[in-house]
């Protein structure tokens, strides 16, 4: 696979690179409240290096460092905006006011203006609902997004971590109400997070949806830190105990799988990043894989990995370690549906 081998995003006809530059790590200053370890100037250098290397798609969100990520992207794209398929997201809370969040018409019409201003652009190529909103009727959301397309403020719209039922419902509601239907869905996908292979990917293919896959390194589990050595714990268990707790049986199985995949990569004389990116790019439903470099060194590793093409025997070996359709823990899905998160919804 090469960055020059562009892929069409769903039924749009728009070509995009197989890697999309994710910007969650970018902010005006480092250490932002939503995780921005990379300051503005270095972020701009990374963005420009990515574009120079052939990446043509970028993904951000208003909530990343409370708008700072979008501001950095806007600065970096001056003079290059037309060369980029630019995606951003709404839904997350953008101020102490709880009304400044969600998927309602009232909030979306405000949120899009803020994103356009911060990104210094007159249109957003792909505007995505960052999460489902169980307090807002889906028809209200897609009608509002349809209106934004008619106004020229966005070109396409999509979703992120919507359930299979929600994906089908949105397509059906749009079609039956003579609206433009969603074009894409953004989901987590990696060698350790494979549940979307069961139904989300087949639905995406059925409706010709573009799929942006994020988290190819499974939030760091496939960074190489999770290799088992006698008497030594993986480093991230100590630095982020909430996310990398291995005390439960599911996480312990995930740890052993990460270790096995690292050893498979060594056997193949590949880096674990190479194996991870090559795996995600191999699925036919995937339009582009979102990478989230924190430095130019990280970017270089991702760009090298994009050249990797895995053979059938390697993909079979990965399947032997983590069977298709497997998620080890529920939170890896990106969002937990209310019926699983809240006990009162399961009891009379």
Could you walk me through the main structural features you see in this protein, from its secondary elements to its overall organization?
It is a single chain. With 348 residues, this protein is of the alpha/beta class. The strands form two sheets. An eight-stranded parallel β-barrel has the order 3-4-5-6-7-8-9-10, surrounded by five helices. Strands 1-2 form a two-stranded antiparallel ribbon. It is globular and about 55 Å long. About 3% of the residues have low confidence.
Q: What is the terminal separation in angstroms?
A: 53 Å
In DSSP terms, counting alpha (H) and pi (I) runs of 4 or more, how many helices?
12
Shape: globular
Strand order of the largest sheet: 3-4-5-6-7-8-9-10
Strand content: 5-15%
Rg, rounded, reads: 20 Å
Let me know the number of strands.
Answer: 10
Major beta sheet summary: 8 strands, parallel, barrel
Mean pLDDT: 91
Helicity range of the residues? 25-40%
| Class derived from helix and strand content | alpha/beta
Order of helices and strands: EEEHEHEHEHEHEHEHHHEHHH
Low-confidence stretches: 30-34, 236-242
């Amino acid at each position: 696979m090469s960055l020059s081998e562009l892929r069409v995003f769903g039924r749009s006809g728009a070509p995009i690179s197989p890697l999309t530059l994710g910007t969650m790590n970018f902010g005006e200053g480092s250490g932002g409240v939503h995780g921005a370890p990379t300051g503005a100037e270095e972020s701009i250098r990374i963005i420009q290096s990515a574009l120079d290397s052939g990446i043509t798609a970028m993904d951000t969100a208003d909530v990343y460092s409370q708008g700072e990520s979008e501001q950095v992207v806007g600065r970096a794209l001056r003079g290059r905006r037309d060369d980029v398929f630019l995606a951003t997201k709404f839904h997350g809370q953008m101020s102490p006011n709880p009304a400044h969040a969600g998927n309602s018409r009232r909030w979306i019409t405000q949120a899009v203006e803020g994103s356009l201003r911060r990104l210094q652009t007159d249109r957003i190529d792909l505007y995505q609902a960052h999460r489902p909103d169980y307090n807002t009727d889906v028809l209200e959301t897609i009608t509002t997004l349809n209106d934004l397309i008619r106004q020229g403020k966005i070109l396409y719209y999509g979703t992120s971590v919507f359930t299979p039922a929600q994906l089908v419902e949105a397509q059906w509601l749009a079609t039956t109400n003579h609206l433009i239907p969603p074009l894409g869905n953004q989901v987590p996908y990696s060698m350790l997070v494979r549940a979307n292979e069961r139904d989300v990917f087949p639905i995406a293919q059925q409706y010709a949806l573009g799929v942006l896959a994020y988290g190819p390194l499974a939030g760091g589990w496939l960074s190489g830190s999770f290799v088992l050595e006698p008497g030594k714990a993986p480093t991230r268990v100590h630095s982020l105990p909430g996310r990398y707790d291995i005390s439960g049986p599911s996480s312990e199985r995930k740890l052993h799988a990460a270790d096995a995949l690292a050893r498979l990569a060594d056997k193949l004389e590949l880096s674990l990043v190479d194996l991870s990116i090559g795996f995600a790019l191999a699925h036919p439903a995937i339009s582009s894989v979102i990478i989230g470099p924190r430095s130019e060194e990280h970017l270089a590793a991702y760009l090298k990995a994009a050249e990797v093409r895995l053979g059938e025997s390697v993909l079979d070996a990965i399947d032997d370690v983590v069977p298709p359709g497997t998620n080890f823990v529920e939170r890896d899905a990106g969002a937990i549906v209310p019926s699983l998160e809240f006990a009162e919804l399961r009891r009379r």
